[in-house]
Amino acid sequence: MSENTTQPAPLCAKCGKELSLSETTFLLDSDDENVEERVCEECSQSVQDEYHEQTTDINYIGAILGGLVGAAIGVAVWYLVAIMFDLTIGIIAIGVGFLVAQGAMFASGNKRGMSLQIISLLITAAALFIAEYLVGVYFINQFFTELLGSSPEFVWIPIGEFIELMVLGMREEFDFIAVVIWGIGLYTAFVTPKAKKLTAK
Ligand SMILES: [Zn+2]
After folding, report:
1. Low-confidence residues in the chain, pLDDT < 50
2. Cα of 53 to ligand 1 centre, how many Å?
3. Does residue 168 form part of some domain?
4. What residues contact 108, with CB distance under 8 A and at least 6 apart?
5. Interval between CA 190 and ligand 1 midpoint (Å)
6. Per the domain annotation, does 198 fall within a domain?
7. Alpha carbon of 25 to ligand 1 centroid (Å)
8. pTM for the predicted model, two decimal places
């Protein structure tokens, strides 16, 4: 589309200086892939420090609590959608991963890095399991109610037995979609708090 139209010279996103072609410039790490922001060589150092600060002095208790809050919201949404509409929407698994990661990042003091990625991944894995469990228990109770024609006492299935049921179900009919959805949810949780880095360009 844009051929040799005279484009304005790119400006440094930090100091606003015009970036010349001969200068080494640095690409800022943006959450939005479509946004390309560059900084000049002088500004790159302060950005580097900023990025470094994001991976130090992490409030781990905050990270875990924040992740759990994100997880609780995600699980609640999952549960409600599942029992109200009788379906499990895969996108919600991704939402759970995203919420956990955002919660962990926010409550850790807007931090990033590998330790947060791992915290986020583990909490998301637990949250996805708990969501499956709660929904499973709900539908098993529903099944009994329909079978007996009345509401029997609510039954909590022991977690061990629930896992056995899940494994059995998977053996009977491997739910490829469910595995992919879980995978994307976990991937989202792991990738979102990645440390930012500058790229020379
Ligand atoms: Zn600059």
Report:
1. 2
2. 19
3. yes
4. 58, 59, 60, 62, 63, 66, 116
5. 32
6. no
7. 9
8. 0.85
3-state SS class at 166? helix
> How many domains would you assign to the chain?
2
Residues 86-113 as b/e (b if ≥16 CB within 10 A, e otherwise) read eebeeebbbbbbbbbbbbbbbbbeebbb
- Output the CA 80–ligand 1 centroid distance in Å: 49
pLDDT of residue 72: 98
Ligand 1 center–CA 110 separation, angstroms = 24
Examine the domain organization and report whether 172 and 138 are in the same domain. Answer: yes
CA angle 170, 175, 179 (to 5 degrees): 100
Q: Which domain range does residue 120 map to?
A: 60-191
Rounded Cα–Cα distance for residues 139 and 136 (Å) = 5
Distance 24 CA to ligand 1 centre (A): 11
Do residues 119 and 185 share a domain?
A: yes
Distance (angstroms) between ligand 1 centre and the Cα of 167 equals 56
What spacing in Å lies between the alpha carbon of 18 and ligand 1's midpoint?
8
List beta partners, residue 18.
11
Residues 83 and 32 in one domain: no
pLDDT tens, residue by residue, 132-182:
999 989 988 888 888 888 777 888 889 999 999 889 988 998 888 888 989
Same domain as 172, residue 101 = yes
